[in-house]
Amino acid sequence: MKSHAQAVVIGGGVVGCSVLYHLTKAGWKDVVLLERDQLTCGSTWHAAGGFHALNGDPNVAKLQDYTVKLYDELEKISGETCGLHLTGGIALADTPERLEWLKMSHARGKYLGMETEMISMKEAKELLPLMDEKHFVGAMWDPIEGHLDPYGTTNAYAKAAKIGGAEIELKCKVEELNWDDTKGVWNIVTSKGTMTAEHVVNAGGLWAREVGRMVGVELPVLAMEHHYLLTEAMPEVAAINESTGKEIIHFIDFAAEVYSRQERDGMLLGTYERAATPWSPKDTPWDFAQELLEPNLDRIAPSLEMAFEHFPAFENAGIRRTVNGPFTFAPDGNPLVGPVRGIPNYWSACAVMAGFSQGGGVGLVLSEWMVNGDPGHDVWGMDVSRFGPWATRDYTNAKVRENYSRRFRIRFPNEELEAARPGQTTSLYDTHLTNGAVMGDSWGLETPLWYAPKDVEAKDVFSFHRSTDFEHVKAEVMNCRENVGYSEISNFAKYEITGPGAREWLSEIMTNFIPKQGRLALTSMTNENGKIIGDFTIACAGAEHFGPKAGEERFQMWGSSAAQIYHMRWFEAHLPKDGSVTIRNLNLELTGITIAGPNAQKVLAKLTDEDVSNEGFKFMDYREHPIAGVPAKTNRISYTGDLGYEIWVKPEYLSKLHAAIVEAGEEFGIKPFGMRALLAMRLEKHFGTWFKEFRPIYTPFEAGLDRFVSKKKNTFIGRDAVFAHKDNPPLTRICLGVSGATDADCIGDEPIYLGDEVIGWTTSGGYGHYVGESLATGYIPTDRLEEAREQGVVVEIIGEMCAAHIQHEPPFDPEGKRMRGDFS
Known about the structure:
Keywords: Oxidoreductase
Domain FAD dependent oxidoreductase central: 372-425
Largest sheet: 9 strands, mixed
Number of helices: 19
Number of strands: 38
Radius of gyration: 28 Å
Shape: globular
CATH topology of the domain at 4-329: FAD/NAD(P)-binding domain
Protein name: FAD-dependent oxidoreductase
Organism: Pseudahrensia aquimaris
Family: Belongs to the GcvT family.
Distance between the termini: 78 Å
Structural class: alpha+beta
């Protein structure tokens, strides 16, 4: 075994071998893979080996498409066969709602360049004679589906990596990982001795938790038992093969929650049963290798019974073999990829449950991240940083079981899943429920979505169409726009930045100027490639007056709750080495309420004896002062786009603040509004949001954030790349009025057509209740903008082509007068 390597990959499954190969492809030759037993041990060897390009997250779908297309390259480089069977496949819908979901998936695939097709049941029956079509209402054909040989594919990755210069050590168990800060290397203690490396990749698969614990991290990953059956020879299969000259295609039956494909002269039939069963939920035994678990046919019987009804040939087929093996999931079913915050050069490549669909893409982005400092793709949906400290082992167990049992079920856009909830709550939680709130999960925190009147059940009816909350959200919006409303905003991310170098550091990492004392600034943050990795509100809170820090400026900052770990990882990686800057994630150490609407100023005036008039407390001012008798930090700003204030207090004061606001606002008709009303109002103002409009695939000039990029600053991270797009950005973010929408609105990822050509995509949408129209925001190429404005565009919503027009300015208060208190 070598004594040193630039990078060590731990784990010899398909993901570990993919990472190894891609590191060599990216230029790192001094790389080693350590496997405690043999390649494919754990989950890879018993996998069903299916692959497909379709995914609910379009950015993950792109990486799955890359993975599938990679296999030909691997075979050519390695000389090994992957055992490819590119049969194509169909997804079968048994209800109108499932058919709508397929239509939305098909539409999404259009702007991704995928070749899916909605087909009739007559066409589906011709493609899949095994089925009884009376049980289904529609289907989608995907030509990029198939299966392969898990062992051959893993060895193709491994051999290609060796050809690229990598080494593989088998029967080499990693026992300890110790970081040497002085030398900047990992000391990797193994059963064959100790070696050092600058980088370590955790591709431990079933043992990902154990490899995480070696560095003090409890990764949110859990192994689940998973069954599939291999039938004996079926005469129906032989007859179809003979008549078509082809293998039987892959298929998914959403109703039965099964997937199937041909295996030799029979069929493979697998299920994600609702009786989801974790395997070894706390510790994975190190002596587990190429072993299977005891089958439990009773547990999967409900799925099998429905499958036999839908595909009668299975009912008379004998079972050649039953496979029950463990494989790993994260709480949301997506991989855990990227650098782990706070641990130098320690990388995650775990929870890749669809290894033969995603393994190549995971290897690609992780290798680019390690070699070039950036993944080169939008990997937010897979980033290990998307989970916070609330993702404990109990949380992970509950959410993984929920996710597994729902694998083939629909997740509606207004559906909040219940497992592991409530988790975090503020002191207003019971008050919200008493007021009729329907709650949602915002990065682990219970947050009001909308409020049901006293005579209405506080419950969502799940749908892709406008649902039961529509009129009630409208009432919340109208009251806020016409009177005054309030909403808890404790779910926002909050940071405090201090130290003698705080201003200079913020100026270096943010695109906009840093405000003077008592003022706010809105700014984006970009990476070295000029792509957006955050958007923030920053307040200069003033200088310390006493003690050793006297004279030092102090800053408060707000951002997206879901990106707190993502952003802290970036902040900490870019802090000055001299300790001149300290940043602290306040999380729920600071809670808040926003008040907004024409009467917001009047309400605030009743809560303080200070001057909060337009002249005394200007738009974009920041003040630390008592509100309702409690210490508060107040921003004169509002995400509603209306006259508004954000009032921030320590959690012990939140209930008192809330009671005082409600009392002060009673004469002005104050009522609460939830997150859905807030998001509807931000659409009316064409405000963007992280993960939707602002992602690391767009520059500020593309995203319409150019007014938050200082032209006078000579330097900030990514400045040259940002200004390269100043005059002619490749894409432009647009505001759409969707006049053709009737009972459903855009939710994001709908294709935008100019004539018959797909030229762009939506990022989010909804109904603008105050302006009275369906709205969406999205991106199209800049060089098509004028043509699209003149001709109008079409947006595909659940298979329906809806006329839309590009708006030159936000439909609500385009001049921004109301935010400044001007209602003339």
